[in-house]
Specification:
133 residues, 42% helix, Endonuclease, Chain A, alpha+beta
């Protein structure tokens, strides 16, 4: 299924990229420039009627950072995730504090998910992880 999006979201997604939270900036520092096994992630990517924090089309993986504002929006987030999952996309969610206080642990969870995906799909990926802590 091809992923489409509302073209009106493009302008808003650019605005969100410029106003990123500290946790988003931290996580972007390890997702950008194909640092994780050569996979390309996009930041503030429109999908359907929504915008996700990070998205990798090759893995069909969305990564979301849930800050304090998400505490009151859990039902909306659940519906949003359900709608996006119709595109056969998978989600990883991290708390804002976890990204800020344990970026390496978050990175390891993402890498673990990617390696599981590669194994399940018979992907041989020898591209090294390009992160220095």
């Amino acid at each position: 299924m091809e992923i489409t999006y509302d073209s009106h979201l493009k302008k808003y997604s650019r605005k969100l990229r410029k106003q990123g939270t500290y946790a988003e900036v931290l996580l972007w520092s390890i997702l950008k420039k194909r640092h994780i096994k050569g996979y390309r992630f996009n930041r503030q990517k429109p999908i359907g009627q929504y915008i996700v924090d990070f998205y990798c089309s090759k893995l069909k993986l969305v990564i979301e950072i849930d800050g304090i504002s998400h505490d009151e929006k859990q039902e909306k987030d659940r519906i949003r995730q359900y709608e996006i999952e119709k595109y056969r996309v998978e989600f990883l969610r991290f708390l804002d504090d976890d990204v800020k206080k344990n970026l390496q642990g978050v990175f390891e969870k993402i890498l673990e998910w990617i390696e599981g995906y590669e194994k399940a799909n018979g992907i041989m990926n020898d591209i090294p992880v390009n992160i220095e802590w």
